[in-house]
Amino acid sequence: MRFRLEARERPSRSLVYGTPVLAVALTMACGSVLFAALGHNPLAVLHAFFIQPIDSLYGLAELTVKATPLVLCAVGLALGFRANIWNIGAEGQLTLGAIAGGGLALWAGDDAGPWLLWAMMAAGLLGGGLWAAIPAYLKTRFNANEILTSLMLTYVAILLLSYLVHGPWKDPDGYSFPQTRMFADGGMLPVLLSGTRLHLGAPIALLAALAGWFVMSRMFIGFQIKVVGLTPAAAGFAGFSVRRLTWITLLAGGAMAGLAGLFEVAGPIGQLLPSISPGYGFTAIIVAFLGRLHPLGILIAGLFIALSYLGGETVQITLGLPLAVSGVFQGMLLFFLLAADVLVRYRPRWTTTTTAGAAVAGEAD
Amino acid sequence: METLAAVLVTVIGAATPLLFAALGELVSEKSGVLNLGVEGMMLVGAVCAFAAALTTGSPAAGILAGAAAGMLTALLFGVLTLSLLANQVASGLALTIFGVGISALIGRDFVGTPLPRLPLLEIPGLSDLPVVGRLLFGHDVLVYLSIAAVPAVIWLLDRSRTGLILRAVGENHEAAHALGHSVIVVRYLAVMFGGAMAGLGGAYLSLAHTPMWAENMTAGRGWIALALVVFATWRPGRVLLGAYLFGGVTVAQLHVQGFGVDIPSQILSMLPYLATIAVLVAISADSVRVRLNAPASLGRIFHPDS
Questions:
Q1: How many other C-beta atoms can be found within 10 angstroms of the C-beta atom of residue A290?
Q2: Most buried of A190, A224, B122, B272, CB within 10 angstroms?
Q3: pLDDT-derived band at B208, boundaries 50, 70, 90
């Protein structure tokens, strides 16, 4: 008996959408075993992880607060991933967006007009986009690998933020804590539902996902992105410029990550701190894959991964488990998803070397 | 002179984890597998080495545990990309995210626990020589092992039959398959070697460089190791040079302020990352040179039917 994978004639449509569900189920099963091994009742952990955080209106609002940056980053990243452009520095682009928009809020002071918030959003888009323009330039001009450059720039961005809040932008009345002044009311996102932290960023993230869907499925540029990703040779014959697509996807991804960063500091946080994101930019990579690189799938995946953040916080408070449990869950989920994805393109077969069928299959090798 | 020697000793400390991880990744990439999970494998190696050394009290057990843990995490990556034909870029990222999480979970009871440093191998007489004594003869076993691994890898890749097959698999997997070599087995072995070396790099961090465990203590070294492989255009000798160069940059930022230069520490900490980008640009701009040395099948999925 030998296990082999047989290529399907065409990818299975039903499994494209079935594998994320399978991956979630396998992650929960494996997570239960892990928690049982750590000496916890798996059902209690799963309840605390997936149900308890969203059993109230406040919890549901928190879910969208966490999902907003994830969805914004992931929709932008997915554009690039579709074209085989691997921007993994969304965390840095998010940080630069927060620095640009937050800096504007600090500069404008307390009595700025209603233009301030819109100007901050523009600054956030610009900051993230400019940070992503660096890997785009280095890739198109010098052929430098964007995976490594965008990641290195993430560390630079986080250090830059740390420098600013420890140094020139530090709040003079802040008892020497590394933080800036709080933004004025005009520089804060309006809360949409009183009693919760649900802010204007959530509907904008929803709009961004819809816009992403429109670009990918209804516009010529979306078609070009898909062709370049699937068959680079065909894209070359059709005269699509990979250089141009590299610029567009990186700039779009960076700008959306920058906007996500601005929403964090102008929404839940309200000032600049040394750490403004629990790794949203990295986790967005998982969200993009879990959502099948499809903007609407990313909406669902973003909500689910946001739940894993809330769940991590809940089990930390109620069961004393470390916050890193979220990362374990997210990593496992991506593993199972990637593993299950083999079923989309291949059919598993057990073959015995003595049967005629296997001999025929062997000739086809 | 003594100060210079002391600085050079710290350069060795900063370079050793990079050297281990980059050499391992080089072998993996030579077989055609791009494993972006170096950071995750280093972290799992670091935490397992620390846990084993602390609970058994034996540094040797720590080193072995680090290598074994790195190898196991690499095996996970191998199953995904080699047996289940998953995308190597995405799987590598998953390995890093998973490694960060699982190492923090394993290490949650060890944060802040001190551990005696990995013993230095003193050679009576030689280690006491002025200047060169401490520089050449006063290190721990992992430092020597990392340096000895360079000629070993050169011999393996350039002089041995195994290396010839490994390079053939990395250059053209269809041809190697047609010649009867098992592409998948060769790649599994190369990936696991890469994992063991990354685990040793992590073990050096948690047993010797800073003998303790802290969440995310690799701080991007795994990614710098990946850049080093490109920097070295897939040549082990140049990996050695690159690792010490980068170790030097890392240490330089600590000493610049000592010389009265008033630059904020965060700006100086950016140096290794900016240097990585600069080097990457310098190397990649010459596309002919990259193409001549890069394994032609790097990152491509092998399936015997297709």
A1: 24
A2: B272
A3: very high
